[in-house]
Amino acid sequence: MNHMSSTAPKFIRPATANRLLASLTHSDLTRIALDLEPVDLVLRQLLYEPDAEIEHVYFPTTGCVSMINVTPDGSVEVGTIGLEGLVGVPVLLHGGSEPTRALVQVEGQAHRISAAAFRTVVAERESMQRVFLRYALALFNQVGQSVACNRLHSLESRCARWLLMTHDRVDGDKFELTQEFLSYMLGVHRPAVTLAAGLLQHAGYIHYTRGHITVTDRPGLESASCSCYQATRDNFTSLAS
Ligand SMILES: [Zn+2]
């Protein structure tokens, strides 16, 4: 056993690695930081379940969380949340729960706050509330874009879009993404996922093996994606302005 590596201090990303927290005023950030605690986002961890009370609001600093709608006929990802946002918008909007599941799709880190403390701090600070509400609108827009995308665009271009969105939220060019998750993301069965990923791999944009994705040609992958990728990205960029 390697004693050194087992005791090496773990690097914890600061709260300001989350773009939403980084965009707060110094005073608001200092206030909310009193109630934040760093946590790991573990692959397949459920941050909340449909119709259950949401206990914490998470601000990811790396990794990716999927909002997944569960139906008797299967599950489809309807939104992706990473370092640009927060997981727990229903708490912000005074809902107790929501019909979706929040699942860690790519492992990473977050800072979290209890739902009760979050409600208190947001009620205290109007400037902070405004930042979070603008994010809720951007997330709403992202979900709307996904609805249009799922109806109008090819599986291959949708696959490219989701890979780009995930790539934006992780460190480096490699990440783990199981076929199961890709099938959630795209709302299709696994053989179709294999086919779409195979086309992108054949074009040289990605390398995909046993759930490990490496983006090998980012501009190529962007060219293979539908316009929804850029539209969603512009939507979040406009938040920061
Ligand atoms: Zn699209």
Description:
The protein is an alpha+beta fold and 241 residues long. The chain has helices spanning 3-7, 19-22, 26-33, 89-92, 115-124, 126-152, 155-167, 179-186, 190-202, 218-224, 228-239, and strands at residues 37-41, 46-48, 56-71, 74-81, 100-114, 174-176, 206-209, 212-215. Helix 6 (126-152) packs antiparallel against helix 11, helix 7 crosses helix 10 (218-224) and helix 8 (179-186) packs across helix 9 (190-202). Strand 7 and strand 8 form a beta hairpin. It is 46% helix and 24% strand. It is globular. The longest helix is centred in the middle third of the chain and has 27 residues, at 126-152. The mean pLDDT is 90. It has two domains: 3-150, Sandwich (Jelly Rolls), CATH 2.60.120; 154-225, Winged helix-like DNA-binding domain superfamily/Winged helix DNA-binding domain (Arc Repressor Mutant, subunit A), CATH 1.10.10.10. The chain binds zinc ion. The site of zinc ion has 6 residues, from helix 7.
